[in-house]
Specification:
259 residues; Hypothetical protein YwqG fold; ten-stranded antiparallel beta sheet; five-stranded mixed beta sheet; 3% helix
């Protein structure tokens, strides 16, 4: 089965956003203020997890120009964001006609905003797995992807009833953001860097912190990537979004699991 891995770039290493771009975290592009979802449990504005655009074969929203925005309640109240119908998360499918131009400002000063990474491209891969529910019980490959089978943080996967109800896997979100290539300097990224050299951790501090930077980035030894914390989903969990295709717009649900 084909699946797609996003190529990411951290916001603090990019120029200001001036057009629609797919992203993880940050502020939504073009969302009308009255559509920003609030948590049904605590009443606070939810936090954007991701904004994706319809693309046949990668993210099927059944219409050109459609957008998917995924939110959750990132507040400290412990709202039940892991449940698909708790009201503590929300998935919006919007047509081009429902999108404005420009970034949407948070609805209140206390709105929590997730560290932003923009999608600069997609890596198409094939895992050679058959398209059947038998593939739904792996505990590997828990990072962000669109398409393919889900890879479950919990070995039990989802109840068969969930599949029987007609939900189809659309994508998953990892707890952290991974970036290809050599890491930036701490001053360029605007946060601390934790590096491992000869199995020893070395901390490099930035001269000046940038407000939109993560707390720190991590550079493992002997690998070709670096990473920073993302939404977390409990204890390094994984978020999942599924779709149904009733008449009209697709219906999308979100939930997460933690190992």
């Amino acid at each position: 089965m084909k699946y797609f891995i996003p190529q990411l770039a951290l916001k603090t290493l990019l120029p200001p956003q001036t057009r629609l771009e797919e992203k993880l975290g940050g502020l939504p592009w073009g969302l009308k203020a009255d559509l920003w979802p609030r948590c049904r449990e605590c009443g606070k504005p939810q936090t954007l997890l991701a904004q994706f655009i319809h693309q046949t074969g990668r993210l099927d929203l059944k219409k050109e120009g459609r957008h998917l925005l995924i939110f959750w309640c990132a507040g400290p109240d412990g709202c039940e964001t892991w449940k698909k119908e708790s009201g503590a998360n929300a998935c919006l499918v919007l047509d081009d006609s429902e999108i404005t131009d420009g970034l949407t400002l948070p609805p209140s000063p206390d709105t929590l905003v997730q560290v932003e990474a923009r999608v600069t491209g997609w890596h198409e891969q094939d895992d050679d797995l058959p398209e059947s529910p038998a593939t739904l019980f792996s505990v590997e490959q828990l990072g962000t992807r669109l398409g393919g089978p889900p890879f479950w943080a919990e070995s039990a996967g989802v109840p068969p009833k969930f599949i029987a109800e007609g939900w189809q896997f659309l994508g998953q979100l990892g707890s952290s953001y991974h970036f290809d290539g050599p890491p930036p300097s701490s001053d360029r990224v605007g946060c601390a860097i934790a590096r491992w050299v000869d199995k020893q951790k070395i901390e490099e501090k930035a001269t000046q912190l940038k407000p939109d930077a993560p707390e720190r980035i991590y550079v493992p030894e002997g690998v070709h990537y670096w990473w920073c914390d993302g939404p977390g989903f409990g204890d390094s969990g994984t978020g999942y979004f599924f779709v149904k295709y009733p008449p009209g717009k697709p219906k999308i649900c979100f939930f997460w699991q933690s190992s």
